[in-house]
Amino acid sequence: MEIWWIIRTLPFLALLSPSSSFSSERQNDSEVPELLALRIKHFEEGQDAYLRCSNKTWNNTLHHIWKINNSGVHCLISEAANKPRHNNCTGGMTLRNTTKGELYLYIPHFGIKDEGTYKCEEVYRGGADVAIITVFARVPPVLSTRLEHDGGQRFAVCSAARGKPEATVSWEEEWWSPKVTERSTNNTDGTVTMESWLLLPDDITQGNLTCVASHASWTHKHSVVMEMTDGSFTLFITLSSIIVLSVVIVTAVSTYVCLKINETQ
Ligand SMILES: *[C@@H]1O[C@H](CO)[C@@H](O)[C@H](O)[C@H]1NC(C)=O
Ligand SMILES: *[C@@H]1O[C@H](CO)[C@@H](O)[C@H](O)[C@H]1NC(C)=O
Ligand SMILES: *[C@@H]1O[C@H](CO)[C@@H](O)[C@H](O)[C@H]1NC(C)=O
Ligand SMILES: *[C@@H]1O[C@H](CO)[C@@H](O)[C@H](O)[C@H]1NC(C)=O
Ligand SMILES: *[C@@H]1O[C@H](CO)[C@@H](O)[C@H](O)[C@H]1NC(C)=O
Ligand SMILES: *[C@@H]1O[C@H](CO)[C@@H](O)[C@H](O)[C@H]1NC(C)=O
Ligand SMILES: *[C@@H]1O[C@H](CO)[C@@H](O)[C@H](O)[C@H]1NC(C)=O
Ligand SMILES: *[C@@H]1O[C@H](CO)[C@@H](O)[C@H](O)[C@H]1NC(C)=O
Fold first, then answer.
1. pTM for the whole thing?
2. Is the CB of residue 84 below 6 angstroms from any atom belonging to ligand 4?
3. How many beta carbons lie within 10 A of that of residue 260, not counting itself?
4. What is the CATH number of the domain that holds 161?
């Protein structure tokens, strides 16, 4: 009970008046602990994550507590010198020791579900550390290209699917001035699909287009080449012709059948 009060109050007291809140308990100001640290961390989806509260070693620590808030789902992991361990977190989150005896939180296969606020409180002889670490997952997108037909126009689409945070996509081409629109979709899993739609003029039926994307997970830009050949355009013409022809045939046949039915009645 007492510890929770101290932990909750510590950062605020410290912000208001670092020395007065402790001088009654401690004779020496240089022992006033480093109190509240705010940090932001990113982890790649699928990789194991490690979070450190401080670099104090366990043998000096009285309590070590993580209070975790994953989008409103709260859980707690604690280790105290004279109390049983507590851990009601799911997904295999555990406290571990380094060989030097420093405690850290281990999160296996970090994912979007593990995003949230990780508040740790470490109380040791002579002070306490509190850190609030906001943790995000990074998901590299899947890069692809395709040809789309929309409203009688042809588009080359450069797509970076399921990225977190969203990727940036663009087309690199050399031989005409581009008309490009960007479309983004928020996926239900928290990822974003980014697309760059490049309007292809009718007279362009072949050539190479390069779809380029950059993402926080990548140190370099990634690219995919889309090879347009006369073939794909011819295929489009052929498919269109087949569709038109089918419509004509179906109409003719139905007309014929209708006439036949009328005749027999
Ligand atoms: C305060 O503590 C530090 C180390 O703990 C020590 O070096 C220093 O002399 C102390 N100062 C006073 C005024 O006691
Ligand atoms: C602990 O971390 C602090 C800063 O975060 C650093 O100044 C100090 O050297 C570290 N101590 C050890 C033993 O690594
Ligand atoms: C705690 O452990 C570290 C590393 O094993 C050691 O250097 C340090 O002296 C120990 N401190 C105490 C108070 O036992
Ligand atoms: C937990 O996180 C959610 C959003 O992820 C936030 O709305 C809520 O206020 C947080 N709860 C606490 C107690 O911080
Ligand atoms: C874990 O335990 C804490 C404290 O006892 C409680 O507030 C929290 O709701 C529990 N979470 C789950 C998922 O059981
Ligand atoms: C870390 O190591 C200490 C000393 O070996 C041990 O008492 C403690 O239970 C360990 N904690 C965890 C979470 O493994
Ligand atoms: C997608 O999410 C972002 C940020 O969460 C928001 O600003 C944007 O309006 C959303 N877009 C759509 C199409 O819902
Ligand atoms: C497109 O790229 C392919 C292979 O990368 C190459 O063989 C072809 O010559 C290129 N076409 C043009 C028009 O640059």
1. 0.69
2. no
3. 10
4. 2.60.40.10
SS (H, E, C) 159-172: EEEEEECCCEEEEE
Query: 181-215: buried (b, 16+ CB within 10 Å) or exposed (e) per residue?
Result: eeeeeeeeebbbbbbbbbebeeebbeeebebbbbb
55 lies in the same domain as 21: yes
Going by alpha carbons, the residue nearest to atom 7 of ligand 4 is: 72
Same domain, 60 and 148: no
Condensed to tens digits (0 to 9), the pLDDT of residues 159-179 reads 999 999 999 999 987 656 568
Indicate the helix (H) or strand (E) that contains 151: none
Q: In terms of residue numbers, what domain contains 173?
A: 142-228
Q: Which residue has the higher pLDDT, 170 or 204?
A: 170
- SS3 state of residue 59: helix
At 53-103, the pLDDT tens digits run 887 777 778 889 999 999 999 999 999 888 889 999 999 999 998 888 888
Ligand 5 lining (C-beta closer than 6 Å): 74-76, 88
Nearest-CA residue for ligand 8 atom 13 is 207
Q: Which of 51, 56, 58 has most ligand 6 atoms within 8 Å of its beta carbon, as the pocket-test mutant?
A: 58
**80 touches 24 (CB < 8 A):** no
Do 127 and 110 contact (CB within 8 A), yes or no?
Answer: no
Closest by CA to 78, choosing from 91, 62, 102, 90, is 62
Residue 86 CA: which ligand is closest? 5
Residue 33 near residue 25, CB atoms below 8 Å = no
132 and 156 share a domain? no
Pocket of ligand 6 (CB under 6 A): 58, 79, 95-97, 101
